[in-house]
Specification:
The chain is an alpha/beta fold. The protein is about 35% helix and about 20% strand. The chain has 3 domains: about 5-150, no CATH class; about 170-380, Rossmann fold, CATH 3.40.50; about 390-585, Rossmann fold (3-Layer(aba) Sandwich), CATH 3.40.50. The strands form 4 sheets. Strands 12-20-17-13-16-15-14 form a 7-stranded mixed β-sheet. A 6-stranded parallel β-sheet has the order 8-7-9-10-6-11, with helices on both faces. It has a 5-stranded mixed β-sheet with strand order 1-4-2-3-5, sandwiched between helices. β18 and β19 form a beta hairpin. The radius of gyration is 26 Å and the shape is globular.
């Protein structure tokens, strides 16, 4: 393959006119280009005001540059880099364009001015060979100062993983298209709507939520004279009455988990059209004096019913918001009811099997949600596994061996192996931690996680240890915000509340003494005394609910199923209870 070249020029009419006749490919050949506003006087910045960047592709680079010169959102850009290769075709350019947009968004030194509807993942002839050359393009652009981080650093970052610039899987694209069609229909007719998106761990529910919010903002802010690419996945929505129907629309993204919410806010801060204050808690929605046209709720199963909250202030807020919205302190009202009362349209992303606390919405509420959405043709399932390289079969396997059928005839008769996925059981926590350290040095994002089977001593005594074994002494996560990327995380153990919704390359999971195996009965059981998440097991006095050991077993097995499905490349397991260890050895290969 003939090597590509990157041509540099100033983003001015004079410079483009001088460049135009130099090569026929400047006006009649597929190319990819990068526009930015980095100059010698104001280089790329990590802190302070971000520089802007736009990536595009065109068969006529000169004509496209002249269009950009008169575009209000791009005329301040100063530098053009045109990537030319005599072997490029339209498909290659679309792919390279998408790749560079994704990487620039993940690098974090720029605001990416592109819309996200043009990100593609289409196959074409010899794609693997072309994509190998993309790495060389990246390296050259990094030497030019366009990128400030390496590919592994970018791909392991939250900015990359939670970016709105993602190539959607087929089922994600089908869901987004169906949701948009239904939403625009309802906006036109004045009807209200509730849409449900279901998906197991790793199917990209959060990706869909963020992508859709960015897409709606882009449609609302689109310029009528803007050059529309008919190859764009959702180009049909960038015209006609769609923009008008979104005029003045008030949209919010509700994220129940604190850590994930803060990570998404960082992404929104760097994305044109999106603002950190769009990302809210259910409490913030309930307290707001504004009515929302659309609320997108990620991890809807983590919305709360009325229960004892983590603080007295939140208990008071729950009561006050319910009274404000419904006129009385109706204890049957949940945060889902708040969401419905405060918005005309709702898009709820959920997985009932990821409820991990009694305060979460009860299963019967989630079941009714799904049934009503199906009846209204507003239910969209996600099936393609985006996280775990072992695929959806692995997620199902984990849920099977931790499910109510454990010990029954439906269980596998031998350990399942998943090609390309490293699944192992360890007999030593120290050995597992050493392997996690080795792999973190090699590929990054490798961490220890555990069930809440040890008290949090270090919350008040920083010199203590929380989790102690004969060969290892460990501490719980020292922060609940962005713990995975914190400088001390490799030496600590993350809980469900710091990792739910996140990816790891390798996860070392400690299954604590809270989960046991009763060999005589052939079933999993819980040891209530060994489960130290107080909010994870307390009865609901407000609603008169008492949570049995069977209820607790559901929450704890859900927690371990979530922990065991964090790893992209592999999952390692240490089991505290000897009987459970012997039981699970039937299904998990030994180290």
């Amino acid at each position: 393959m003939t090597p590509f070249k990157i041509e540099h020029l100033k983003f001015t009419s004079e410079s483009i006119s001088t460049w135009a006749p130099g090569d026929h490919r400047n006006t009649n050949w597929p190319v990819v280009y990068v526009l930015d506003d980095a100059t010698a006087s104001r280089p790329i910045m990590r802190g302070g005001r971000l520089n802007d960047v736009y990536v595009g592709e065109s068969r006529n680079a000169v004509a496209r540059m002249r269009q950009h010169l008169v575009a209000p959102d791009k005329r301040h850009l100063s530098t053009v880099r045109v990537i030319v290769d005599e072997s490029f075709n339209k498909s290659v350019c679309l792919d390279l364009e998408s790749y560079l947009i994704r990487m620039l968004a993940g690098d974090g030194s720029y605001r990416v001015l592109n819309r996200n509807d043009g990100i593609t993942e289409s196959d074409y002839f010899d794609r693997d060979r072309y994509q190998a050359s993309f790495l060389e393009v990246f390296d050259q652009l990094r030497r030019d100062g366009v990128f400030t981080r390496s590919i592994p650093e970018i791909e392991n970052s939250d900015l990359f993983k939670l970016s709105p610039f993602k190539a959607l899987t087929l089922d994600q694209a089908v869901a987004v298209e169906g949701i948009l069609e239904g939403l625009f229909e309802d906006l036109g007719s004045g009807a209200t709507s509730t849409t449900v998106v279901q998906g197991e761990p790793g199917t990209g529910k959060t990706v869909v939520a963020i992508y859709m919010l960015k897409l709606l903002v882009d449609i609302a802010n689109s310029v009528p004279t803007e050059d529309l690419d008919s190859d764009s996945l959702f180009s049909e929505f960038f015209g006609g009455e769609y923009k008008q129907r979104l005029s003045g629309i008030r949209i919010g993204l509700v994220v129940p988990q604190q850590s994930l919410r803060n990570s998404i806010k960082k992404v929104f801060k760097k994305t044109p059209g999106l603002k950190p204050d769009m990302v809210m808690t259910a409490f913030e929605v309930g307290e707001s004096n504004e009515h929302f046209d659309l609320l997108i709720v990620d991890e809807s199963h983590r919305l709360n019913q009325r229960a004892n909250q983590p603080s007295g202030v939140q208990n008071k807020k729950f009561q006050m918001i319910t009274e404000k919205l419904f006129g009385t302190d109706d204890t049957t009202k949940t945060q889902l009811d708040w969401i419905r009362a405060k918005s005309t349209h709702q898009i709820l992303l959920l997985d009932a099997a990821q409820s991990v606390r009694p305060a979460d919405l009860p299963p019967e509420v989630l079941s009714r949600l799904v049934e009503r959405a199906r009846a209204a043709n507003r239910n969209y399932p996600l099936a393609t596994q985006m996280r775990v390289r072992a695929g959806a079969d692995y997620v199902g396997y984990v849920r099977l061996i931790l499910g109510p059928a454990a010990g029954g005839v439906s269980l596998p008769v031998r350990p399942e192996t998943f090609e390309g996925y490293d699944l192992r059981m360890f007999d030593s926590v120290a050995d597992m931690h050493a392997e996690i350290r080795r792999l973190d040095a090699e590929v990054g994002l490798s961490r220890l996680v555990a069930g809440f089977a040890w008290p949090w001593k270090t919350k008040t005594d920083k010199g203590a240890y929380d989790i102690e074994f004969d060969d290892a002494k460990l501490r719980w996560n020292s922060t609940q915000t962005d713990w995975i990327a914190s400088p001390t995380s490799l030496d600590e153990v993350g809980s469900i509340h710091t990792v739910q919704g996140y990816d790891l390359n390798y996860a070392g999971v400690i299954i604590g003494p809270d989960l046991r195996y009763a060999a005589a009965e052939g079933r999993l059981t819980v040891d209530r005394a060994q489960y130290f998440d107080l909010k994870g097991k307390e009865n609901n006095k407000v609603l008169g609910k008492v949570y049995t050991d069977e209820d607790l077993l559901r929450f704890i097995t859900n927690i371990y199923a979530v922990l065991l499905t964090r790893g992209i490349r592999g999952t390692f397991i240490y089991v505290c209870d000897p009987a459970l260890r012997e039981h699970l050895r039937q299904f998990i290969p030994r180290n």
